[in-house]
Amino acid sequence: MMNHEEIILNLKPHVITQEDRTVFPTFSKPQTHGGFSVSPDGKFEKNENRKRYLFVPPMGQIQVHLGDSEARRSQRLHLLQPSLDNILLYMEGKGTAFLQTKDQISVEVNHDIVCSSEVLELILRTPYEKEESWTLAITKYRNTIYISPVVLSEPNNSPMREMNAEWIETLRRHFLSEKPNTLPEPRGSMEQTGQYHGVFSVTINGKRFIFDAPVLAESVPNNANVKPETKEIFTDLQIRPDNMSVDEWTAHNRSQALKWWIKCFIVGIENIHVAYVNRHIIAHTIEKISVRKIFRDCETVWLPHVCFNFMARLVDNICSFTSSVDCHKTVYLLTFDAIPGKISYKCYPGRSQFTFIPDWFRIMLEERKEDLIREANVE
């Protein structure tokens, strides 16, 4: 294969078969492994200080004029350079918890794929995505595949999307608290708080994934009937108009509702909170909605089976074309062209501008070998 030669995969994400609609791949319930904080500028912090709890007033009645707010949402950091530094730093801080030895010779991560939740969300939406393309950077190193999003050019976000993001940021300022069941303390409209990321693992068709995802914690009443083994209940906060036409509902179910469902399902969120906004841009009610209901309302528009079957096929393809090269420097750029539904990849062998496995991570794997061997001997 020539360097940077485009290879088109034999995948047609927009072609949905009857089997895709009826058979669901094996999928394990998401497991949580703690989490970490991310600063407003995207830097890893080895603590949970930025965890926030959603506080919803009794009966869900609120009165927030979103149009009057001077809040500016945290600028999303578009990864022009691929990176998984945050989750790798979290794994490094956990000693040998996410590592294993192979024949007591080399140390490797004990999962098949390391990525971010954004990677999973992009892939799972692909069968129904006709507008937004994506590119992923992929490296195989010591039998584990690492996948990071990468934006090759600045995206052209619509004004409405930018406005919705600012409205959600305004709601977060009003209803996110540092402590459960506590009213949020007032803070400046321009103050940025960063984000808490949970670390999760799932198994799909035998492939073990570990990833991080930004999540909100839910304030659970002290008298609530919660299972003792439930350490944390996560949720999400979204907005939508309180009055939509048939066409607007169709567009919402096809796009936003699918994004909400995928974001929740992969981390095990069972309920989200939706703030309803009237034509005067006033958020007046927050309703708790089950993720299952989101699916039931949209099952004639999209099916989870289709999303996960496509993902399973794509992962099989990734495992196939990365099988011959196990190198921390080599990167494959996998691209989905949304309009024609084409998926292709290019290989960048050796070190390049896309290499994203940090040197400190490789050194850490070597340094943990003796620890793993010693723990094995104790057992």
UniProtKB/TrEMBL annotation:
CC per GO annotation: cytosol; nucleus
UniProt entry keywords in alphabetical sequence: Hydrolase, Metal-binding, Nuclease, Nucleotide-binding, Nucleus, RNA-binding
Pfam families: RAI1
Family: Belongs to the DXO/Dom3Z family.
Subcellular location: Nucleus
Cleavable signal peptide: none
Described function: Decapping enzyme for NAD-capped RNAs: specifically hydrolyzes the nicotinamide adenine dinucleotide (NAD) cap from a subset of RNAs by removing the entire NAD moiety from the 5'-end of an NAD-capped RNA.
The protein, known as: Decapping nuclease
InterPro entries for this protein: RAI1 (IPR013961), RAI1-like_fam (IPR039039)
Organism: Drosophila madeirensis
One GO BP annotation of this record: nuclear-transcribed mRNA catabolic process
EC number per UniProt: 3.6.1.-
